[in-house]
Amino acid sequence: MQIVTVASKAYSDQRPGTSGLRKSVVTFQQEHYLENFVQSLFDVLDGYVGKTLILGGDGRFFNLTAIQVIIRMAVAAGFGRIVVGHDGLLSTPAASHLIRKNKAFGGIILSASHNPGGPDGDLGIKFNTANGGPAQEALTEAIFQHSLKIAHYHFADIPEVPLDCIDQHSFGHTIIDVVDPVADYAQLMQELFDFSAIKSLIDNGFQVCFDAMHAITGPYAKKILGEQLGINQENLLNCEPKADFGGGHPDPNLTYAHELAERMLSDTAPDFGAASDGDGDRNMILGRQCFVNPSDSLAVIAANATLIPAYKNGLSGVARSMPTSAAIDVVAKQLGIDCYETPTGWKFFGNLLDANKITLCGEESFGTGSNHVREKDGIWAVLCWLNIVAVKKQSVSEILLAHWQRFGKHVYTRHDYQGVETTSAKNLVEHLLNNLINLSDKQFDNYTIKTADEFSYTDPIDGSISEHQGIRLLFKNGARIIFRLSGTGTSGATLRVYIEDYCTDSNQYNENTQSYLKPLIHIADKIAGIKMHTGMKIPTVIT
Ligand code: G16
Predict the structure, then answer these.
(1) In the prediction, which pLDDT does 31 show?
(2) Does the CB atom of residue 61 touch ligand 1 within 6 A?
(3) Which end of the chain, N or C, is less surrounded by CB atoms within 10 Å?
(4) What is the pLDDT of residues 234-274, one digit of tens each?
(5) What's the 355 CA to ligand 1 centre distance in angstroms?
(6) Ligand 1 atom with least separation from CA of 17
(7) The pTM of the whole model exceeds 0.85
(8) pLDDT class for 19, splitting at 50, 70, 90?
(9) What residue spans define the domains of the chain?
(10) CA–CA distances in Å: residue 418 to residues 186, 422, 427, 538, 541
(11) Cβ(296)–Cβ(325) under 8 Å?
(12) CB atoms within 10 A of CB 141
């Protein structure tokens, strides 16, 4: 087997964002682009020779091409074993589980998550470390710095590895195992949840509808929700993974999962609906004519966690990303456990999970997870809800209402302004930062600002500091407005405005979220000049 060295030229745009390097497919198709990033990764890592690498992706366009490139480079780098999903498929949580189960050195996941796929869509690549979680900032920054000066890469001159059947191959000192992407993950789910309770719920006529959005969770849903739990095939929508997600946008929210949303909001809606995203780590939960806000979903799961076998002994603590609503904080307080506030990005939960400071964590961006892996997990969240419903024998809306009656309601929305011109977005942020000092104690309508600051996080385990993590306006009555620029987009800038108010008047629990938050939405625009800076009168997406 020959190792070939290729001279390359460096690119200047390979700094990973919130979750790995995400770019358009066209960007990745540039000469040496993918190879440079992978070689930069291998060059900054240490100690992987002879160790195991997990490899897979969400099946989007360019997934298979990229996997063959990475196999050739990983063989050249000296990995002892490469575990790759059948057809190159692995959901992000399943990849995390395989890393942990195989005590692997780490894993490479190819996905641009919820971003559209296809030749004109996006692709992404990220490295997860031995704990199964996304690489920390220090490592991703080192990869980026190396990518700026990379001059060559290496690959093993081996034939294409057939990924269309489960088999073992060997090249030099490297064994390549093509594995079933679902089996180990499905077994883990069976260990965590009360499958017989969920199955009898379904056998007794509880109607569940799941939308895989033509993305990676299709095979997982068919096996776990269909075969193991008995959900009818016709209620498992869009379960064939497609390279372009069937032309859709695999983001599980009311806008993009509209087929499911329409079904769930109709008069003949099933009892329960859920969707997952491109790579299977996000989730949306719906009841009959009832949308569960992701921040509420996290809080409900935490409040009822002891009903689930895996968490029957309680939670060590919980965490949420800063822009996520404080619904989980109120639950944690009542449970007498710690609640951590981290920057946006699942990587920030890793240390807390490893140190057993937390058992559950989640984000407003439709992500929920626990210590079972080191990624958020869509199917896991669905099973949490089904397990809770099976034990409580209540509908989703009854569970939600009872939760608000006990803990109060954090009325919450996120307004996204996509495709904003980068300079305009930067100007908006700069203008806000310059004004923060003047905002304390300022009153707007009935809301008085208590604190106006830029969020910075010191990791309680390793002391690392992450600055510039979003601008917070914290009001005296508990309301909050947060401004952030997304770190996952691939063109222009996306401004995210997170708006939240705390309500304890049960007469108002059913009020329309946008109407309830109207005064705060107005205040957000007044303070940040959103319309003026973005030139947009309304948000592109509201969740
Ligand atoms: C990624 C991260 C999440 C983050 C989300 C949105 O999720 O893993 O932690 O909340 O992006 O990030 P941003 O607001 O910066 O766009 P995913 O599902 O896209 O991998």
Answers:
(1) 97
(2) no
(3) N
(4) 999 999 999 999 998 999 998 899 899 999 999 999 999 99
(5) 23
(6) 15
(7) yes
(8) confident
(9) 3-181, 185-407, 409-542
(10) 36, 11, 16, 11, 8
(11) yes
(12) 14
